[in-house]
Design a protein that fits this description.
heterodimer, A: alpha+beta, 4-stranded antiparallel sheet, two-stranded antiparallel ribbon, 2 helices, 6 strands, 41% strand, B: Ubiquitin-like (UB roll), FAD/NAD(P)-binding domain, 7-stranded mixed sheet, 6-stranded mixed sheet, 24 helices, 28% strand, elongated
Chain lengths: 88, 951
């Protein structure tokens, strides 16, 4: 079983975690055409390469981010969500 | 009759005889015997019939990996005869026989073999109708070509799981694995060594080696407390980050190792010639295992096929066991004579070089080997041992990312692992001799230790012996066939050659077309030969062909091992003991157990009616502790709820309770509850029992993006809830000692209060699912029984009755209150529920807002309404029955029940949006297919003006 390093709880078995999918830009709901809004809701991109994903450590209900290579399934790093905001 | 004296037979205890039966006939063996060895000791060599041609088959490898040595026990199919010990009274029978093993009516299949070429099924059983395969052919073939039979009434066994952590896991306790484990443990690492055999030693336990080697390793191992040895333990897979399941009998060790050393050894390969599958033909290692492990003489007169030193050692072992070795056949040319050759000649064994076994013939019905052909002449024998080469046990290394290659110079299959925490040692890494294996184990340990940061002694680099090329047996199809490559699936050389002619040139395609390697032994004895045949037929190298992908599990595993123990996890409220004491009929609701009703099960209906009437006319008490309870604290708490729920909460006054409705981003209703504002920066929010886990996760997920200043606390288990409801509810609470004023004016409907009640700190909300005057009391769970007792005592003079889930369901249905998940589905919008009132029109944003606006523009198609069936109606539709309009389904019944307050059956149902008006009549299809008409009525069947809850 894969290990995932939670920024708060350290390395844990991956079955303690729940994936919440890649981080996506949230379009302004009030300034988006119906067609684009549908796309936002229902279309999941699945491109090769490294993605930043939301993960939840279920027992502690802590959400954090992980950079993962979708081809090799290597988890490159994990970090707290504040880092993403600080960078933005 | 074939039993040898001690010291042969390291696994058996001759003082303990065990009786069992095989195919109904009595047999006897010793404690420690496997089924196969005990049968062999009594001269029973045939164990089963082959898959397709129903040919008798027996022991091939004695490793437990042979498909043809799988047997049936009364309560377990496909048991490995070579590994499973006998026990007193065990009843064993053969598999895949029509009739008996001795007289198999399907043995005639062997004659018709040429009419059953590979791909025959795909081409033949396509018609005559489209479903002929499914309906007719497949069931027939399954009956013919099955393995064992599952006993669905077998008693449950106890299985369990444990966790194991170590610095170094060594898989395989042969010379390489042992020396690796000892070296790692001596350096101070925490080491686990596992082996599937009942003893350690691997080849040292059955091969012709100096016993001092094994006893030397054993004495060093015994002094190491940080080295844990698990024998009888199969490592059945490698998973990411060195997670490995170790199966020891009925126990699964879920193992996490920092470094893994795979010393899984090599798999002896059979030779391919006509009738190479007869009982009596076995691998050299099988003969050695029978002799040393079980003290069983593998035959009286033998021919030995030897293309390596192991074959010569086998011949010497056979002589020691009193077997007459007629001839040793060595297909290699006679250029050099090793010491073993001289030793054998000294014992008078004839050695023929540059020849091989060309064919074999059996006794009547091919029941046992009778003679073999060498250089055109026939030699009578009842045992042929085959030692022509090995393949590294590639299964675990390949799962760990290893790549299979082929070294053309040495003619060896090779495995290369990427740099990382997995290392190979011993013959799986290509070593030949014991000393090389031991050195390779130490090197692997040094590599693992340096990764772990131990100061490990630097092992001198491998001194490659002048690696002699291995002998490679040419594989030529016999004109008359029956030259088996895959014993599991009865595949012959020509079957594989024909597959390549049919265009299946890639190994994965050859596998799927011919089923080669798909049987229980998973290509252990066929993968290398298959690669050679395909390489030859397609003019490529074996390295280019490769072998098929190896996936976990390495070997068969019982479902019980995966399932573990059978205990069902359940959640109980803090009041569970109170319910039991009141003789409640407990009912599972998800993981929770809740009272369905109180009192005798035989009077369930009566009890439910009484409980309903108690609430409507007096007062009732319901345990609502399973409700989700969340506390939201922080300066942004109001703003946070505004974004999550559809109603306005930022402007909600302190002390007020507001309904809250949650949508997902698609605008579908996913949860509801109430929010009690306890302070400017504190809300107490309830969620439905089933959804609270998700709501709690979603809240944190959203806020990971929003970063509002709030803290969310899940109090579901920490707090309990009691609902006191009915016209007399206030009288009950006023009879208790409290600092809360429960009067109508001081504590109006939809407000909340904090205080103490009967000495218990409580949060009280005036809400209610029943439509009656209701107080919901929440308190710390540890104090809930005391509060329950106080309320019960105070309620006694007023006829208070505890009520259960069924009464609660009917009470809320009488009010038309919805249950999320019961009356809603994945696409329900607030409009469909008539909940426009619960959706703020002023807020700029809440989750789902954009989508419900968009969906409203698409047009509403259905509406949830109340249906009332006439009193005494005979045919009442059940939940999920379809609502029809013009013969087409437009909706369904979501809740239905008998209302004692109204004296009729009532229901909630989705109907066509044009039928939503009160008085419309809709058609519902009952379970028995009959159509019934029912009028649409207002949601609140009982007390439509909702006056009762506000008294």
């Amino acid at each position: 079983m894969k290990l995932l390093t939670c920024p708060m709880n350290g390395p844990r078995n991956i079955d303690e975690f729940q994936s919440f999918g890649p981080v996506r830009a949230r379009p302004d709901p009030n300034a988006t055409a119906d067609r684009d809004w549908s796309r936002h809701l229902f279309r999941a991109e699945n491109r090769k390469g490294v993605v930043v994903e939301w993960w939840r450590h279920v027992p502690s209900n802590y959400f954090f981010l992980a950079e993962r290579d979708l081809v090799s399934n290597e988890i490159i790093r994990t970090f707290d969500a504040s880092e993403l905001r600080d960078r933005a | 009759m074939n039993r040898l004296p001690a010291p042969f037979g390291s696994r058996i205890d001759r003082s303990r005889r065990i009786r069992f039966t095989f195919e109904g006939k009595p047999f006897e063996g010793y404690e420690g015997d496997s089924i196969a060895s005990a049968l062999a000791a009594s001269g029973q060599w045939a164990l089963s019939r082959s898959f397709k041609y129903h040919r008798p088959r027996g022991i091939l490898s004695m490793t437990g990996a042979d498909a043809n040595a799988l047997l049936q026990l009364p309560s377990e199919p496909n048991v490995a005869a070579e590994r499973t010990p006998i026990s007193e009274g065990l009843r064993v029978s053969a598999q895949n026989v029509n009739g008996s093993l001795e007289r198999d009516r399907d043995a005639i299949m062997d004659r018709f073999g040429r009419f059953l070429p590979v791909g025959f099924y795909y081409r033949t059983f396509m018609g005559p109708r489209r479903d002929s395969w499914l309906k007719f052919w497949e069931p027939m073939i399954r009956r013919k070509a099955g393995l064992g039979v599952v006993d669905t009434k077998a008693p449950h066994r106890h299985f369990d799981k444990t966790h194991l952590h170590c610095d170094v896991l060594v898989v395989g306790a042969g010379p390489a694995g042992l020396s690796a484990a000892i070296a790692a443990a001596e350096a101070g690492a925490d080491v686990v060594l596992c082996d599937e055999n009942p003893e350690i030693g691997g080849a040292l336990s059955y091969g012709r080696y100096d016993p001092a080697i094994l006893s030397g390793l054993w004495s060093r191992l015994e002094t190491l407390p940080n080295l844990k040895v698990l024998t009888g333990t199969v490592c059945n897979g490698w998973y990411e980050d060195n997670w490995l399941p170790l199966i020891q009998g009925d126990r699964l060790h879920r193992t996490r190792a920092r470094e893994v050393i795979l010393a899984t050894g090599a798999i002896e390969q059979p030779a391919v010639f006509r009738n190479n599958d007869l009982p009596g033909i076995m691998l050299g290692g099988a003969a050695q295992r029978l002799i040393r492990h079980y003290g069983v003489r593998p035959g009286q007169s033998a021919v030995v096929l030897a293309a390596n030193d192991e074959g010569y050692r086998t011949a010497l072992d056979l002589l020691d066991a009193g077997v007459s070795v007629v001839e040793l056949v060595d297909p290699r040319s006679a250029d050099e004579a090793g010491p073993l050759e001289a030793e054998l000649r000294g014992k008078g064994v004839a050695i023929r070089k540059g020849a091989t076994i060309e064919a074999a013939e059996g006794t009547a019905g091919n029941r046992h080997l009778a003679r073999v052909r060498v250089g055109g002449s026939w030699i009578g024998c009842e045992l042929l041992t085959v030692s022509i080469g090995q393949a590294p046990a590639w299964q675990l290394p390949c799962q760990a990312g290893g790549k299979v290659g082929y070294d053309a110079a040495t003619q060896m299959m090779t495995i290369t692992l990427p740099q990382g925490p997995v290392h190979l040692a011993g013959s799986v890494a290509g070593t030949d001799e014991i000393e090389d294996a031991v050195a390779s184990g130490r090197r692997a340990a040094a590599a693992a230790l340096s990764q772990l940061g131990h100061a490990a002694a630097v092992e001198p680099p491998a001194t490659p012996k002048s690696a002699r090329p291995r002998y490679v047996q040419p594989i030529v199809a016999d004109r008359k066939g029956r030259d088996f490559v895959d014993f599991d699936e009865d595949l012959q050389v020509k079957d594989l050659q024909n597959a390549t002619k049919d265009g299946y040139r890639e190994i994965e395609l050859v596998k799927r077309f011919t089923t080669v390697g798909m049987g229980p032994s998973q290509g252990r004895h066929s993968a290398l030969a298959t690669a050679r045949i395909v390489a030859e037929a397609t003019g490529r190298t074996i390295g280019e062909i490769g072998i098929t992908t190896a996936r976990p599990p390495v070997g068969p595993e019982t479902l019980g091992v995966l399932a573990g123990h059978h205990e069902v996890l359940e959640r109980r409220t803090a009041l569970h003991a109170r319910h039991i004491a009141l003789n409640a009929a407990m009912w599972p609701v998800g993981a929770w157990w809740r009272p369905y009703h109180y009192g005798s099960a035989t009077k369930a209906e009566e009890a439910v009616h009484e409980e309903i009437l108690a609430v409507r006319e007096g007062v009732g008490l319901l345990d609502v502790s399973t409700l989700g309870k969340l506390e939201i604290r922080g300066p942004d708490a109001g703003e946070f709820l505004d974004r999550l729920y559809t109603m306005a909460h930022a402007n909600q006054p302190v002390g007020r309770v507001r309904y809250c409705l949650m949508l997902n981003e698609m605008g579908s209703v996913i949860d509801d509850g109430v929010a009690y504002r306890m302070a400017q920066d504190q809300f107490y929010v309830t969620a439905t029992t089933g959804a609270v886990a998700r709501v709690y996760a979603d809240m944190l997920f959203w806020n990971a993006e929003w970063r509002l200043k709030v803290d969310v606390l899940n109090l579901t288990g920490a707090f309990s809830g009691l609902n006191v409801t009915g016209p007399k509810a206030r009288m009950v609470l006023e009879a208790l000692d409290s600092d809360i004023d429960f009067s109508r004016d001081a504590f109006p409907y939809l407000s909340g209060r904090e205080g103490t009640l009967a000495g218990v700190p409580v949060r009280v909300m005036r809400i209610g699912f029943t439509g009656e005057l209701s107080y919901e009391l929440h308190c710390p769970s540890s104090l809930a029984p005391a509060l329950w007792d106080a309320v019960m005592a105070a309620g006694k003079p007023h006829g208070l009755r505890p009520y259960g889930l069924e009464a609660s369901r009917i009470l809320r249905l009488e009010k038309g209150h919805i249950l999320i998940g019961q009356d809603t589905d994945a696409i329900t919008t607030p409009d469909e529920l008539g909940f426009g009132w619960a959706v703020s029109k002023k807020k700029l944003f809440f989750v789902g807002k954009r989508s419900i606006e968009m969906r409203a523009r698409l047009g509403q198609t259905r509406k949830l309404v109340g249906l009332q069936f006439p009193a005494g109606a005979r045919n009442i539709p059940g939940e999920s029955c379809l609502v029809l309009r013009g013969g087409m389904p437009v909706g369904q019944i979501t809740s239905v029940g008998y209302s004692p307050s109204l004296g009729t059956h009532i229901a909630l149902a989705y109907v066509h949006v044009d039928d939503q008006a009160e008085g419309s009549s809709v058609t519902v299809k009952c379970r028995n297919g009959e159509l019934v008409e029912a009028p649409v009525v207002a949601h609140a069947f009982f007390d439509p003006t909702n006056a009762r809850q506000e008294i």
